[in-house]
Amino acid sequence: MKRYCLGAAVFAAISMPACAQSSVTLYGMIDLGVAYVSKLGGASAVKMLDATSVPTMWGLTGAEDLGGGTRAVFKLENGFLASTGAQINPNSFFNRQAYVGLANRDYGTLTMGHQASLEFEMISPLYAAGWTLGTDLMYHPGNIDDLFNSHQIDSSLKYRSPVFKGFEIGLLFGGLTGVAGDPAYARAYQAAATYKIGDFAASAFYGSENHRAIMMLSGTGLITLFGQRLSAAPFVADNVKNVAVGLRYAPAPYVFTALFTQSRIGYQGQTSNMNNYDLAASWRVTAALMLGAGYTQTHFVGNVTNTGSVTVNYELSKRTGVYANEVFQRASSGHVADISTIGPAGCRSQNVVMVGMRHRF
């Protein structure tokens, strides 16, 4: 971290206080592993997988003390693939986050720009993947509920309140750019609340987004939806509404979570719901060793998928860790298993066994 102080002469010229405390931090993570996949397009495969434990990315974040408990803040964050060096989104350099705003210790934080959803920020800690187990292979099909930070909200205003007697709220209003002739084309509204007391936490979320693009074919294993044959191109829903409620109980060294999410997809007057039910538990055996297990049941367009996982995480140091996990999924008869980030199995069942390494800097 580097700190900078601008001279009084410069600030005097523009009638601002001298020597405000500023900081800029460069940070990031790299995660890579090798997996055996029992079925991928009908055949077994060995493949390298990026970012299944933590996101592979780098970023810059900073703050300037403006006085009176207020700071100017910013964050620029880019995701990439360690296996190839390519950007995750070749059309967006800071694809994960790009925002600026103000933070006050008494009134909260207001930011604007390209930002992560409130569901990712405030619901993910209660999730069977995410921060409980540390395996992205357990994320819900297509990430329609935004629990994985692969879908961000453009041109958005976000407010996060300070924590007051255990309560925190978040509000987001996005899609402010719109398109020609339709200012509400990508309009998004989100609200979330969290309550924490001791080892217990509960969260709830509601969000609505117009013209949401979803990688439906590769993310869910579906071939058709709403009578339309799916292609490799994103499926653009007219509207997606998400709700989530979850609980977390964390009496050290254990963590137990339960979560329900529903994504209602609207397209040309038709709707379809994806319902997800999650349970997870982890045990911090030692400061370095953590064991975890999780289960998810997903209901979507007549298909019920059951997905389970076991995970072992071991920290070699404060910055470097290794892990191993196994994830198994079985779909309903006539449907195809498709573990998150792997690809359609070509049959009802899919199993992934993986070992990997991550490093934070």
Number of helices: 4
Strand content: over 45%
Largest sheet: 16 strands, antiparallel, barrel
* Strand line-up across the major sheet: 2-4-5-6-7-8-9-10-11-14-15-16-17-18-19-20
Number of strands: 20
Shape: globular
Could you give the distance between the termini? 12 Å
Order of helices and strands: EHEEEEEEHHEEEEHEEEEEEEEE
Approximate helicity band: under 10%
Structural Rg: 21 Å
Low-confidence stretches: 1-18
Structural class: mainly beta
- What is the average per-residue confidence, as pLDDT, rounded to a whole number? 90
Question: Can you tag this structure with a few keywords?
Answer:
361 residues; mainly beta; 16-stranded antiparallel β-barrel; two-stranded antiparallel ribbon; 6% helix; disordered N terminus
Can you offer a commentary on this structure?
The chain is mostly beta strands. 6% of the residues lie in helices and 57% in strands. A 16-stranded antiparallel barrel has the order 2-4-5-6-7-8-9-10-11-14-15-16-17-18-19-20. It has a two-stranded antiparallel ribbon with strand order 12-13. A hairpin with a 4-residue loop joins strand 16 (270-284) and strand 17 (289-300). The longest helix has 6 residues, at 8-13. Mean pLDDT is 90; it is low at 1-18.
List the helices and strands and how they pair.
Blueprint: E1 2-4, H1 8-13, E2 22-40, E3 43-50, E4 57-67, E5 70-79, E6 97-104, E7 108-116, H2 118-123, H3 130-133, E8 152-160, E9 167-174, E10 188-197, E11 200-214, H4 216-220, E12 224-225, E13 228-229, E14 235-249, E15 254-267, E16 270-284, E17 289-300, E18 303-315, E19 320-330, E20 349-360
Antiparallel strand pairs: 1-2, 2-3, 2-4, 2-20, 4-5, 5-6, 6-7, 7-8, 8-9, 9-10, 10-11, 11-14, 12-13, 14-15, 15-16, 16-17, 17-18, 18-19, 19-20
